[in-house]
Amino acid sequence: MKRILNLYIIREIASLFLLGIVVFTLILLMGRLIKLTEMVVSRGVPFADVARMIACLMPSFLVFTLPMAFLLAVLLAFGRLSSDNEITVLKAGGVSLLQLMPPVLACAIVTAALSLVVSLYGVPWGNSAFKEMSYRLLKQNAAATVREKVFWDDMPGIMLYTDHYDEANRLLKGVLIHDGRDSARPLTIFARQGRIGTVQGTEDTRIVLNDGSIHKSGSKDDYHLVHFDEYIMMISRPAGGGGIGLNELDMGVGELNRQISNPALPKPQRLKMAAELHSRFALPFASLVFAVLAMPLGIQNRRSGKSVGFSLSIAILLAYYILMSLMKTLVEKGTLPPLVGMWAPNTVFLAFGWFMLRMASQERSFSLPSWQDLTRRFGKGA
């Protein structure tokens, strides 16, 4: 009997879990899809390359959507069981709420394990691969992305503006370029005309400028002006940088630990990396927290319609990630230790979930006051 019940609950959660992954992933992916579609339509990037870029983005989304989908699945599953009075029948048969927890926790452990693998290995690989591919595609299609009378900043550290652009001949007229790749000595270049293209056999971009001037500034009294008839500007891949600087999102656990213990690194950067390291473990653990929280909330939600469960899951997720974002900010400012700050949301929601579970097991209902109740209370106080 117990085995049949466990399989029944697992099957109920699993089907809704898969649906939740698809829904939440599409929601998070929607903003990126607009930009990626623009690359296919206006920049001529092959659809296969864009599909590979989407695949690289998936780990960054899955680390969030796996716990989100699990919360939604448990809420909807137990909401349906409660609304169809199946929970009442199980209680009448001597099955307590604690006896319903093992299949939910089993699903939570599987979800947490998947999230942990994605967080530790998928996220740094996906972010690095996405940046690498984006940089390569932008260089290959640099000439196709330039627009006249529009500031062009697709290349890291380079800002280009042109009054007129002949795309067929890749000819620029009235050119302004700000080269900030060397932050200590930025360059500002003006040219009457130029031509942009790529170096054959490489991923480098070459801009040939004619009849212009270079303005170079360093310290307060360090300023140089150079006039030229022809100037060739190369935009090459920085050595060892992969074209784009790495940040904490691109690093694995080992690299994060090395950077955190590096005394030469500024403290704000070390705190940021410490926050990222703890979040790699805290976010997957949220699935176990949501298992304890979602089951009693789903049981007490007897109103019909899946929209209520979906709205409730969105409210919980918003509260969780707002609190997580607040704690991360406090950690990065040095106000809280990384261990305390990044695990605080899990601790708070786990305590609330345990409270809700005890209330539900004692047949005591709990509900937040409605807007009408708040209005009535404040109205009487006035």
Any overview of this molecule?
This protein has 382 residues and is an alpha+beta fold. Helix content is 61%, strand content 15%. It has ten helices and five strands; from the N terminus they run H-H-H-H-H-E-E-E-E-E-H-H-H-H-H. The chain has helices at residues 2-41, 47-83, 86-92, 101-140, 142-145, 253-260, 267-300, 306-332, 338-361, 371-381, and strands at residues 158-166, 171-179, 187-198, 205-217, 223-235. A five-stranded antiparallel beta sheet has the order 1-2-3-4-5, with no helix packed on it. Strand 1 (158-166) and strand 2 (171-179) form a beta hairpin. The N and C termini lie far apart (57 Å).
Round the mean pLDDT to the nearest integer and report it: 82
Rg calculated over all Cα atoms: 28 Å
Instruction: Report the major sheet.
Output: 5 strands, antiparallel
Order of helices and strands: HHHHHEEEEEHHHHH
Tally of individual helices: 10
Structural class, from secondary structure content? alpha+beta
Shape call: elongated
Strand tally, please? Answer: 5
Strand order of the largest sheet: 1-2-3-4-5
Task: State the separation between the terminal residues, measured CA to CA.
Answer: 57 Å
Strand percentage: 5-15%
Low-confidence parts: 239-243
Percent helix range: 55-70%
Short characterization:
Helices cover 61% and strands 15% of the residues.
